[in-house]
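Exam prep: given the inputs below (a chain plus pyridoxal-5'-phosphate), describe the expected output before reading on.
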Amino acid sequence: MTETVCYDCGRTYPPDRVRCRCGEPTWFDVDVDGFEWPTEGDRTGVRRYADVLPVDPVAGLSDASGGTPLVRADRLDEYAGCRLFVKDEGQNPTGSFKDRGSAVGVAWAARAGHEWVGTVSHGNMAMSMAAHAADRDLGCVVLVPSRIPADRLGLIAQYDPEVLRVEGNYGRLYYDTLDVETEPAVTFVNSDAPTRVAGQKTVAFEICEAFAPETPDAIVLPVSSGGHASAVWKALGELVDAGAIARTPRIYLAQAEAVAPIARAFRRGEETVADVDPAETVAFSISNGSPPSGNRALAAARRTGGGVRSVSEDAILEATERFATRAGLCVEPACATTLAAIRDLTEAGEIDADERVVAIATGTGFKESTGIRDGNDPVDVTLDRLEEELAAAIDRE
Ligand SMILES: *Cc1c(COP(=O)(O)O)cnc(C)c1O
Ligand SMILES: [Zn+2]
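Solution:
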């Protein structure tokens, strides 16, 4: 795996090249000849699929990254309108799927002898890169947008990276980091960097391994930059090429209506994604109005027979609550866009009631308090009235 390739025009490049001359992002070219599902005793986490990665992410925090549970959330079936499975990415070391990509991106930089890594992030990727850099003893610089919530800054700070809060156009910042030159150099592992996309493929390998020899009918994930969606699409393509799955699950992508450039392009039947001005949304982690892998994400949805949906703020909050009250899962509102979108898709007849659908819950809700249910205040009781109050509580239910 020594080359990156453009998914669109097929040009190939040396491995550090992240964008093609045509403007589209690149990813690692992988030869899947001889691929076999790992067996029980093999390694867990991202390292389980080292054969399809550009670098083996060495032992350490990468052992804790990936290998997340697939939960059959049958109490959500009625709300979702289909047979629902949840891939619980909140169980990664920093609480989001970003750890899969950071493990590979940081290992790649370390192997090349680089001393610094960096990223442009809304929070989850910053935290993840800082943690993996700490594990490999690399310096880490994170560039965050000026409107980042204060509690996220605190979470990032615990891993002690250099944090730069950047004023100005967040979409442009991504491109600016591709050209900056410093001494020593900083290896930027942004949202759709080929090493990150490689690591993030492992979520789809795990999902398909769990269903093998069958496949789920659809995989649904929230989309922002399009890096994660690209990774899932790439993984499914590799598995088909390897003969490990017989057919490709449809990929559906979910956005918040407040920032939905990819959903808009899908609805209008366009080939390319145009930028939008991001409005406020509770789904803060997916508020990129200028997605660098937007066209590739759009292609992932179209070419697998899936689609892209946008959902309202109310629908996101309701779905966040349903995850908790019907499956016991605390998810970030950004992830709840999947459940809201699935509900729309089943109502529209695009997903059937007997289909098996995997929602990727990309990040834990433990990091923030948005979406917490009102009107469930505790009842104050004294010990001498315990029995009566317990009985009254049961009656209320
Ligand atoms: C980063 C992130 C996403 C979006 O992933 P992209 O690769 O930018 O499309 C979705 N959910 C959560 C929780 C995230 O942190
Ligand atoms: Zn190209």
